[in-house]
């Protein structure tokens, strides 16, 4: 009786598929990334005028207001904000969500820190005056050499 020859089975090698697994995983992550980034609000605005700043914190609108001052006057600031709320037909309960206070400086005789210091003083005066619109506002300070040394610009983001 003759023995049957034993044939070796060819084993499958899956290492060649590893590259495809990586490529498919990368593609899935890109799809998730692109789907989530399309819903990010667009933020913007300049130093002058008004405009829609975007959709922040789940509100259906957020409006921006930019005002320049040469001295601190709490009643004038409140009046300007109230006028903006009325003109934009915002609810009376609107508050300042974010305030960027930019101080001017003369680049020939001062440094940027001098403008930032002026913004800090203006911010302290706003807090000291107890203006209700700024009760829960986040305040950021800045400086700009395009402004005169006695000028302060408020960039306010209002929200209900």
What does this protein structure show overall?
Helices cover about 30% and strands about 20% of the residues. With about 160 residues, the protein is α+β, with helices and mostly antiparallel strands. It has a domain at about 50-160: 60s Ribosomal Protein L30, Chain: A (2-Layer Sandwich). A five-stranded mixed beta sheet has the order 1-2-5-3-4. Helix 3 (about 110-130) links the parallel strand 3 (about 95-105) and strand 4 (about 140-145). The relative contact order is 0.19.
Low-confidence stretches: 40-61
- The helical percent reads 25-40%
The sequence of SSEs as H and E is: HEEHEHEE
Helical stretch tally: 3
According to CATH, what is the class of the domain at 50-159?
Alpha Beta
Strand percent estimate: 15-25%
**CATH overall fold name of the domain at 50-159:** 60s Ribosomal Protein L30, Chain: A
* Structure class: alpha+beta
Q: Quickly give the CATH architecture of the domain at 50-159.
A: 2-Layer Sandwich
Overall geometric form: elongated
Short description:
The chain has 160 residues and is of the alpha+beta class. It is built from three helices and five strands, in the order H-E-E-H-E-H-E-E.
Fill in the keyword field for this structure:
160 residues; alpha+beta; 60s Ribosomal Protein L30, Chain: A; five-stranded mixed sheet; 3 helices; 5 strands; 32% helix; 22% strand
């Amino acid at each position: 009786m003759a023995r049957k020859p034993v044939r070796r089975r060819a084993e499958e090698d899956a290492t060649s598929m590893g590259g495809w697994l990586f490529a498919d995983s990368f593609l899935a992550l890109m799809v998730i990334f692109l789907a989530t980034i399309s819903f990010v609000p667009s933020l913007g605005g300049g130093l002058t005028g008004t405009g829609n700043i975007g959709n922040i914190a789940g509100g259906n609108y957020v409006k921006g207001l930019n005002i320049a001052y040469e001295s601190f006057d709490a009643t004038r600031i409140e009046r300007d904000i109230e006028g903006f709320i009325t003109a934009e037909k915002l609810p009376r309960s609107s508050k300042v969500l974010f305030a960027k206070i930019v101080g001017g400086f003369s680049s020939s005789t001062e440094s940027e820190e001098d403008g930032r210091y002026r913004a800090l003083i203006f911010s302290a005066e706003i807090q000291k005056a107890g203006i209700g619109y700024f009760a829960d506002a986040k305040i950021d300070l800045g400086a700009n050499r395009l402004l005169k040394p006695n000028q302060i610009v408020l960039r306010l983001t209002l929200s209900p």
